[in-house]
Design brief:
The chain is mostly helical and 83 residues long. It has four helices and no strands.
Length: 83
């Protein structure tokens, strides 16, 4: 967490938003991914999750403030991890 706080010039409380949103999205996304796996199969849903996670990680590496990191890692990666 120290490198993220130094990179974005924020305190630990602000930097933890990205991780908190990722965990919430991941847990809430299970409600959506379960029926998707049942309807479309695990291979397609797993591929979608991998694409969302990779896109989120790529965009998070370019984030220059907390809200960008929260959107990229918290929302996209959280949704991808839930698949």
């Amino acid at each position: 967490m120290r490198s993220l706080t130094e990179e974005l010039n924020v305190d630990q409380g602000s930097a933890s938003w990205a991780t908190s949103v990722a965990v919430g999205t991941m847990l809430g996304g299970g409600l959506v991914s379960g029926p998707l796996v049942h309807g479309f199969g695990p291979r397609l849903v797993g591929l979608l999750g991998a694409l969302l996670s990779a896109t989120g990680m790529l965009l998070a590496s370019f984030s220059s403030n907390v809200w960008q990191a929260t959107l990229a890692y918290g929302v996209l990666c959280g949704a991808g991890f839930s698949c």
